[in-house]
Design brief:
Radius of gyration: 13 Å
Order of helices and strands: HHHH
Strand content: under 5%
Oligomer: single chain
Helix content: 55-70%
Shape: globular
Distance between the termini: 9 Å
Number of helices: 4
């Protein structure tokens, strides 16, 4: 779920990645040919690549499955 100006444009890339089970690294390494709003996804995901304990990652995945 996303609430933001132009959220429909921003979430398309994330939905495509989720449906195809792409790792976060694929999006953070993507090169955009011109400035686009979806670059904010890269910045947010780069923050997500911080090291989190495995138990916290598992908890987040479980919560996503339950509430999705």
């Amino acid at each position: 779920t996303m609430i933001a100006p132009k959220a429909g444009d921003l979430i398309q890339e994330l939905q495509l990645a989720a449906e195809n089970e792409l790792p976060i690294q694929k999006i953070t390494e993507r090169v955009y040919p011109y400035p686009v709003a979806a670059r904010i996804n890269q910045k947010a995901m780069r923050g997500m690549t911080m090291s989190f304990p495995d138990w916290l990652k598992k908890l987040a995945r479980t919560a996503f499955r339950v509430f999705n």
